[in-house]
Specification:
With 343 residues, the chain is an alpha/beta fold. It has 10 helices and 15 strands. 37% of the residues lie in helices and 18% in strands. β14 and β15 form a beta hairpin. It binds NADP nicotinamide-adenine-dinucleotide phosphate (NAP) and ligand F7E.
Length: 343
Amino acid sequence: MKKAFITGVTGQDGSYLAELLLSKGYEVHSILRRSSVFTSARIDHLMRHPHFFTYHGDLTDSSNLHTLLAKIQPHEVYNLGAQSHVAVSFEVPEYTAEVDAVGTIRLLNAIKDAKIRTRFYQASTSELYGGIPATAPQSEKTPFHPKSPYGAAKLYAYWATVNYREAYGLYACNGILFNHESPRRGETFVTKKITKAAARIKQGRQPDLTLGNLNAQRDWGYAKEYVEAMWLMLQQETPTDYVVATGKVFSVRQFVEMAFEEAGLQIEWRGSGADEIGVNKRTGEILVKIDPKYYRPAEVDFLCGDPSLISKNLGWSARTNLRQLVKIMVQYDLHHDSYGAEG
Ligand code: NAP
Ligand code: F7E
């Protein structure tokens, strides 16, 4: 039986990846951070699975990582743990670097020191590019220019992964994943914030929604499909870094329109800049407002991935388009209040 070790298992991607690996017959080992509240809502349905194991652990603790890896001897390691919020990284830049950058090298070094023969997946990100439209669509060959402490920390982790591959012959690869969403997406990321608000406004449980930059454009895919790409990347003869994306771009404004439409509400935009509002076309009621507190010190305006390499080499491509994804998320939020196995 193959054994996998996952960091970040309580997150959106970690929970889908654990489900995928269990369905493929893996034994899945994972770390949970100690917290004063329960953080396992996305994986509670896996807790009784006979092949699913959790341990207390943290990417800021080398000895913990070393001990666990030496004991488990996994065949595959997926490093998904991170302070993953771009806006928050401007407020906690040092901590973000500690977990996302140094945490990755701690894990790589624990593999090396414990002399484990394993394959390593690093959760790299389109934030490495910084979204310069002139360089879009962004491929494995596009130069990096991160625009946040999060992006800068992930840049270090990207190169640490390449370096351990080149220096020590480790089977290690970077998945450069563009934004991917699902009903399990964290509630402070823009898509889930919008779909949850659209559902609650429709149900009369929330008056309106306040957002930041409506003009940012993203390449949004479905997280459940993106974890399949992670697994595929570790099943090849040669470790290779891949862009994982849909190749299609939409703005936050378009996402709002689609989500409210799915909830049965039509948005009409009025005004501009921080004074722009989205009103209910039928009643004139204000449903969407702007608050500049959600603007970032530096914005990534435009991200569009070129997934041709992974499509050609691994046969992976996105199957769910944005309208279908919005439907999945809004319908989930209309019928559920929290994360769960159904999402
Ligand atoms: P997420 O939902 O925010 O999950 C992050 C996970 O990391 C959680 O399990 C969290 O644990 C864990 N974590 C945070 N700090 C940690 C620490 N010090 N030690 C160990 N674990 C820690 O993120 P996601 O959307 O699933 O993304 C997974 C990975 O892919 C992240 O590395 C992210 O940066 C990267 N990524 C995401 C996207 C995307 O669009 N989703 C795109 C590209 C790359 P708690 O539950 O205890 O907080
Ligand atoms: O923002 C704009 C915001 O926080 C998307 C992470 O998973 O993907 C994610 O990072 C856009 C930005 O995701 C609000 O300014 C407007 O332009 O959902 P987000 P992100 O920053 O793209 C990458 C690939 C990762 O690797 C990260 O880990 O939406 N926006 N109004 C807003 N964003 C938020 N969060 N909240 C708003 O109210």
